[in-house]
Specification:
The complex is a heterodimer of chains A (416) and B (975). Chain A has a five-stranded parallel β-sheet, with helices on both faces. Chain A has helices at 14-23, 39-48, 65-75, 90-96, 110-125, 130-138, 146-157, 163-171, 174-184, 198-215, 233-253, 258-270, 273-281, 283-296, 300-308, 312-322, 327-334, 346-360, 382-396, 408-415, and strands at 5-10, 31-36, 53-56, 80-85, 102-105. In chain A, helix 3 runs parallel beside helix 4 and helix 13 packs across helix 14. The mean pLDDT of chain A is 79. Chain A is built from 20 helices and five strands. Chain B has 26 helices and 34 strands. In chain B, the strands form seven sheets. In chain B, strands 18-17-16-21-20-19 form a six-stranded antiparallel β-sheet, with helices on both faces. Chain B starts with a helix and ends in a 7-residue tail after the last strand. The chains are: A alpha/beta (416), B alpha+beta (975). The A-B interface holds A 13, 15-16, 18-20, 22-23, 25-26, 59, 84-87, 89, 105-110, 163-164, 190, 192, 194, 196, 200, 203-208, 258 and B 715-716, 718-731, 733-735, 737-738, 795, 798-799, 803, 806-807, 812-813, 815-820, 823, 848-849, 851-852, 854, 971.
Chain lengths: 416, 975
């Protein structure tokens, strides 16, 4: 690392700033740090200096953190925005959530703060293109499928909305789920970070919160399906859900640590988020990718690399990293095509689940059936393992009817 | 005539009265079925009998002459008078020619003729020659009978034989010469009024006629005997000493005195007056025409009939002449009449009498008693039949009315019972009403119904009107609703629509008639009465098929029954309403859970405890009744447990108290004491309401409010605490790094000084070492890192407590959310750390496998808190001041489909006798002020009622208590 990370801390309590300054003194060689006691001062500093990261309190007199971060987001979209607050209420969450990449609760341990800042910076490493970096950093929410969003709104406007139904609808859209997961991590809820499923995250937030979020019109943008007719977001999300489920089932089958399974599940769900970003931001160029895939039968990642110089895996990992997903999840997203260690860690599970889903459910006729990276499964056991897992998935997934039984040909194909 | 007629009517009415009395007697025994006819014929017989007796006694003969037919008819006595056999046919001409004395023939004939011109009654004395040649003198009276045109249509006559009377007069004259022998009074009086002679029999007369000396006539006597009428032919009547004398004053030619011949005619007088009476009766029947008379030939054709008969049967004479009697005899009586007539023809009998009915031209029924008698010719063969017909319709009607009145009275008497009977229902009353109505009106069919709440007619009882039982079984309610227009359809509904009783004798002609449904009996006639209560229509009595059709009489009966039925309905309904309101009151009292305890003010004993109160008390009735009123151990907050018996003048209104239940637990109640007069005695009524639920809710609400404010407070202070905690932590972190640096720096000096002996011995180093020791640097280097670590730990604890508080009482609407039970338990233990930390340690054995639970986490936190605090207190009680530490173990594990939670303590344990009561609200073992007694009952409500889980306590006194909780996976309230 040749360049120091430049971080701006904002807090109306000078003691906090001074303490942080002292506490991070040991980082003085790696970080360039500035401190501001108000939003105005922070903005003034931004005019002079370029910051990579801003860490701001939310409750401040005058311009509060939500306002400041929103301004920073508009003026300097490439900056990583972290909120550090002792207490926020729902209103503050809603006002700040578009602008805030991550929330950290006060009091936080020094190491945690450092980890978060450095983690966010590190996730940038996967995205080398600075343009692409700033584009992703700017993203405040993932576009959602309009129909799904409409159903949720309709349900919420009922006199007695069903939390189950709302959860079910939200679960149909990975963009929404990602948003919800981000919320769950905010200090307002103070929920345990160990969350089993998106569905539970939703029910934990409760209807009130969901209602406040969904019915605040500015929080979500709609995905325009017309701009890329050959790309179906619905099908993509269905694939993601299956991968998530398959990853979970494999984890269960292998009796892996539950926490890892949960992370794999999350990573499986989010592993193709990058595709949405690319398709939404660059529909023309992504059409080119799809064309190449159809023509050359090359893997999607390879075509993306050719067109964008990056892959959906990298972009997804970066954004989710920004949004505070745990590093395991981010790793699982970023390496779901590149996994090369047989260690039953998150990337392995996601990678295998992805392959299995691609083989057993045909999403797109043009997609090439990706093979398994040789290193990820030991050569001599590969066929055996795959067969075991596929059968396990089949036996334990009652609601799954698109899942095809592997025939000999398919299995042979997988073995090679 | 008018006077006579009215007299007759009066007599008849008197007769009827007498008859009624008889009937009444008969009716009371109620055996004879068809009395009126029988009685009527008896009456006729008696009348006829009286007439013939009168005729005989007064030597009166009667006759009748019909102008149209020139037929004469004689009474038996007339025949006897003339010395002819009653069988002999006598014409008027025969009478004039052969019976009237030749001397009087012309006179009589002329007189008879003059009747038709003069049209006035006449009287005449004439001689007849009897069949046996005897000459008799008759006094005759003749009355012409005029028709509507004023023409004489018939003549009635009576003849009295006065031959004997004339003879008597002659006899007196004969006796005149021998006054002393004369048994009758004989007196000779001079024209001066001096009594010249008087025989013995005349003595009583002289007393009245003479002055006091007895020799000269008094002025009255002079007037009587010597006035201008000395030549009286007929004589004078003189009454004296209750006897009547006939005095004939005979002037003796060429003398100055007169002879007076007296005769005692007292007996004759009375006979004469009796005759006059009979004569009237005779007239009554013959002249006024109360009796119809018919003469019928053997072929049933008429010989003659009188006007009365026409009147009775209601046909004009001309019409009747072309008819025969069977054609207007009531069909039911024809056969019997014919049979009797045939018997006469066959000579089996000479006469018969029967009661029969005629059907008048206008359709009305006439009741009559007839007496028919055969008239034989000289050869003794039946010649024709004479029939007397007496119209007894009025009598029958009167009698029927009487009977009706009587039956009506009896019916009403029978109705009385159902109306006043305490258990009477509309159904039972309707049954009696219909029965009586059918009986009284002679209706074959009928029904009785009431108008129900929807305005529809609900039939309570009906006679079988369906031939095929088309209307369902008896127990099925029959309801006739109104039509779309709000009218009662068809003929049955007519009276309900117009609210007026009516009857129809030709059902099919009525405009409202819609015909009967299939299977319904054919309706001939119908009588229908609305049952009204004031203006309100309450029901209907309908009757049908009376054999003779309906008349005003049946209508009246039905209406009276309707009135009674209305009263009955009103009574039953108001009774029902009363019962209903009583029931309502009872169910309201039970419904609102009002316990009632009745207490005698004098003895202060409990007399009655109602079921609701018993339920509250949880004990048997006998545990309280008869006991003193303090048996409940009333306690109010403000009276320090004084016993509370009701005291006069001490008003208790909605006072909140507790009472001791049978099982010994307390029950909060609200009490009001009323002073009431019950059965004439003053009693206290304690009205109590169980307010435990309300109390519990109140307390729970308080608790919720407390939590809410804690939630808000903790959210508010979180920021205030977290911010300094942040910089405290950061500073400590800095300081810990900085101290390491300082220590390194200090240790740098030390290492320099200890590097060589020379350095060590240098003055500088000596100084450093001294300072090191003075500063007690060894201790600082040892302790400062600990101090810092511990301070950081303190910050962490502050942070965790703030977080736990926030989560424990997270503000927000009470909604089902997914929650981590393990985290919740940890939070709770953290929050109540103060309660347990001095005497216990908490051991967690939490399973990481348990999934998030859909639940009301705030409530569960509250429940966990209560249980953990109880556990902490149990341990405190046991180990206080011993320095020992108890253990609270909190366990969780998954036990599909439950999450199992166990909170175990090593405290005092719960005594076995208390264990069953621990979930009772208001039960507490803690000292006043420490516990509300709400704790475990609240836990029960949260875990069992709200989440569908279970909670159980097992305990061993002295060893500890274990609370086992099972919470079902899945959303609360969804099975």
């Amino acid at each position: 690392m040749t360049q120091k990370i430049s971080v701006l801390f904002v807090d109306d309590e000078e003691n906090v700033l001074a303490a942080i300054k002292r506490m991070l003194r040991y980082k003085r060689n790696d970080w360039f740090m500035e401190f501001a006691e108000s939003g105005q001062k922070a903005l003034a500093l931004f005019e002079k200096t370029e910051f990579d990261v801003i860490v701001s309190d939310i409750r401040m007199p005058g311009m509060d953190g939500a306002e400041l971060l929103n301004k920073i987001k508009d003026l300097y979209p490439n900056v990583i925005r972290i909120a550090l607050s002792g207490q926020v209420d729902l209103n503050e969450v809603i006002r700040s959530i578009r602008a805030v990449h991550q929330y950290i609760s006060k009091p936080c341990e020094a190491d945690e703060l450092v980890d978060k800042v450095e983690g966010a910076i590190t996730s940038r490493k996967v995205l080398t293109d600075p343009q692409m970096q700033s584009l992703v950093t700017e993203i405040d929410a993932l576009p959602v499928i309009p129909k799904v969003f409409q159903s949720i709104q309709e349900e919420l406007r009922l006199d007695e909305p069903s939390v189950d139904k709302v959860a079910e609808f939200i679960s149909m859209d990975v963009g929404l789920v990602a948003k919800i997961l981000k919320l769950v991590n905010s200090p307002y809820f103070g929920l345990p970070s160990y969350i089993d499923s998106a569905y539970q995250a939703i029910t934990m937030l409760g209807l009130e919160t969901i209602k406040a979020l969904v019915l605040s019109t500015h929080l979500f943008s709609m995905y325009d399906e017309k701009q890329l007719p050959h790309f179906s977001l619905n099908l993509l999300w269905e694939h993601c859900f299956r991968v998530s489920k398959i990853a979970q089932l494999i984890g269960q089958c292998e009796k892996i640590d539950k926490r890892v399974v949960a992370q794999a599940r999350m990573a499986g769900l989010l592993h193709d988020v990058g595709k949405l970003i690319l398709a939404n931001q660059f529909p023309k160029r992504y059409e080119e990718v799809l064309k190449r895939v159809a023509e050359t039968k090359a893997p999607v990642c390879q075509c993306e690399m050719e067109v964008f110089g990056t892959t959906h895996a990298q972009i997804g990992a970066y954004l989710m990293g920004l949004w505070g997903m745990s590093s395991n999840v981010v790793h699982g997203i970023g390496y779901h095509h590149l996994g090369d260690i047989y260690d039953f860690n998150v990337p392995t599970l996601v990678a295998v689940a992805n392959v299995i889903d691609h083989h057993c459910v045909i999403i797109h006729p043009d997609y090439v059936k990706i093979g398994i990276n040789e290193k990820i499964l030991p050569q001599d056991q590969r066929g055996e393992l795959l067969e075991k897992w596929i059968n396990y998935v089949k036996d334990n997934w009652s609601g799954m009817d698109e899942f095809q039984i592997l025939d000999g040909e398919l299995l042979a194909q997988l073995r090679t | 005539m008018g006077r006579l007629e009215s007299m007759t009517k009066a007599a008849l009415i008197a007769e009827v009265k007498e008859l009624r009395a008889t009937i009444h007697k008969l009716e009371a025994t109620s055996v004879v079925s068809d009395i009126p006819i029988e009685v009527g014929s008896e009456h006729l017989h008696r009348t006829l009998n009286l007439l013939s007796q009168a005729e005989e006694l007064g030597k009166v003969g009667g006759w009748q002459y019909e102008t149209a037919t020139e037929q004469s008819e004689w009474t038996d006595n007339m025949y006897r008078l003339c010395g002819y056999s009653p069988d002999t046919p006598i014409t008027h001409d025969f009478f004039i020619e052969h019976i009237v004395h030749p001397d009087d023939k012309a006179v009589i004939s002329n007189l008879f003729q003059s009747l038709f011109t003069e049209k006035r009654p006449i009287a005449v004395d004439f001689k007849i020659i009897r069949k046996d040649g005897q000459e008799r003198l008759l006094h005759g009276k003749v009355v012409p009978q005029l028709d509507k045109a004023g023409e004489v249509k018939s003549v009635y006559g009576v003849n009295l034989d006065i031959t004997d009377q004339q003879k008597a007069v002659a006899h007196i004259q004969d006796l005149a010469r021998f006054p002393s022998e004369n048994p009758n009074p004989v007196i000779r009086v001079s024209v001066d009024g001096i009594v010249l002679y008087a025989n013995g029999a005349a003595t009583p007369l002289l007393d009245g006629l003479c002055s006091s000396d007895g020799k000269a006539l008094s002025s009255i006597g002079r007037e009587l005997l010597l006035a201008e009428s000395q030549s009286i032919e007929g004589g004078i009547e003189y009454e004296c000493e209750n006897r009547t004398y006939h005095l004939s004053v005979i002037p003796i030619p060429a003398s100055d005195y007169v002879n007076v011949y007296g005769m005692d005619i007292t007996e004759r007088k009375s006979a004469e007056s009796e005759l006059r009476e009979r004569e009237e009766q005779f007239r009554m029947h013959y002249q006024i025409g109360l009796v119809g008379m018919v003469q019928v030939n053997l072929d049933k054709s008429w010989t003659s009939f009188n006007d009365k008969f026409c009147e009775i049967v209601g046909y004009e004479r001309e019409e009747l002449e072309t008819m025969q009697w069977p054609s207007f005899t009531h069909p039911d009586d024809v056969d019997e009449n014919k049979r009797l007539f045939e018997e006469i023809l066959a000579g089996k009998r000479d006469s018969y009498s029967m009661s029969k009915r005629y059907v008048r031209k206008d359709g009305q029924i006439v009741y009559a008693t007839i007496y028919a008698r055969t008239i034989h010719n000289n050869e003794g063969e039946p010649k024709y039949v004479v029939t007397h017909i007496m119209d007894i319709t009025e009598l029958v009607t009167a009698e029927k009315e009487l009977r009706r009145n009587l039956s009506e009275s009896m019916a009403l008497a029978r109705l009385y019972a159902p109306i006043v009977a305490p258990k009477a229902t509309i159904q039972s009353t309707a049954t009696v009403v219909l029965e009586e109505a059918q009986k009284l009106t002679g209706s074959k069919h009928g029904y009785v119904g009431t108008i129900n709440g929807n305005g529809a007619l609900e039939i309570h009882i009906f006679s079988t009107m369906m031939e095929e039982c088309a209307i369902a079984a008896e127990h099925k309610k029959i309801v006739f609703p109104k039509d779309e227009k709000g009218q009662y359809p068809a003929l049955w509904g007519h009276c309900l629509n117009v609210r007026k009783a009516h009857f129809v004798n030709k059902v099919h002609d009525h405009p409202a008639s819609k015909g009967a449904p299939e299977g319904h009996v054919k309706l001939e006639n119908l009588l229908s009465v609305p049952v009204m209560l004031g203006d309100q229509l309450v029901g209907q009595i309908a009757l049908a098929n009376r054999p003779d059709g309906y008349s005003e009489g049946e209508l009246q009966i039905a209406m009276r029954l309707a009135d009674y039925f209305a009263l009955a309905v009103q009574r039953v309904r108001s009774e029902e309403a009363l019962m209903a309101s009583r029931d309502l009151m009872q169910s309201i009292l039970t419904g609102i859970g009002a316990g009632i305890i009745q207490i005698d003010p004098k003895t202060q004993t409990i007399e009655r405890v109602n079921d609701v109160a018993l339920k509250m008390l949880g004990g048997p009735e006998e545990a309280y009744v008869g006991k003193l009123c303090d048996a409940f151990c009333w306690k109010a907050r403000d009276d320090n447990g004084k016993l509370n018996c009701p005291i006069e003048g001490n008003e208790v209104v909605q006072k909140e108290m507790t009472l001791k239940r049978y099982a010994g637990t307390n029950l909060p109640i609200q009490k009001t004491v009323l002073s009431e007069t019950i059965d004439g005695k003053e009693k206290f009524l304690e009205i109590i309401f169980d307010i435990s639920e309300r109390k519990e809710l109140e307390r729970r609400l308080n608790l919720a409010q407390k939590l809410e404010s804690i939630g808000q407070l903790s959210a508010g202070i979180a920021h205030e605490i977290n911010t300094p905690a942040q910089y405290l932590g950061d500073n400590l972190k800095f300081f810990s790094g900085a101290f390491d640096d300082i220590l390194n720096f200090a240790k740098g000096y030390e290492s320099i000084c200890s590097s060589t002996q020379a350095a060590h011995d240098s003055e500088l180093c000596m100084h450093v070492e001294k300072m090191w020791k003075d500063t007690d640097m060894d201790y600082l280097t040892e302790e400062i890192p600990h101090a810092l670590t511990q301070s950081l730990e303190g910050i962490r604890r502050i942070a965790s407590i703030v977080k736990a508080m926030k989560q424990f009482s997270h503000p927000g609407i009470d909604l089902v959310k997914h929650a981590d039970i393990n985290a919740a338990l940890e939070n709770t233990v953290t929050v109540c750390r103060n309660e347990w930390k001095y005497h216990s340690k908490v051991v967690f054995e939490l399973s990481p496998d348990i999934p998030l639970l859909s639940c009301y986490i705030n409530d569960l936190n509250q429940a966990f808190l209560n249980i953990i605090v109880n556990a902490a207190h149990a341990i405190t009680n046991k180990v206080a001041n011993t320095g020992e530490l108890g253990v609270i173990t909190v366990r969780t594990w998954l036990e599909e489909p439950w999450i199992a939670i166990e909170i175990e303590d090593t405290g005092t344990g719960i005594p076995a006798d208390i264990l069953p009561k621990i979930f009772d609200p208001f039960f507490t073992t803690k000292d006043v002020g420490v516990g509300t007694g709400q704790g475990l009952s609240l836990c029960y409500a949260i875990i069992v009622d709200k989440h569908g889980g279970t909670i159980d306590f097992t305990s061993e006194p002295g060893v500890g208590t274990r609370c086992s909780i099972r919470l079902p996976l899945g959303t609360p309230g969804e099975g």
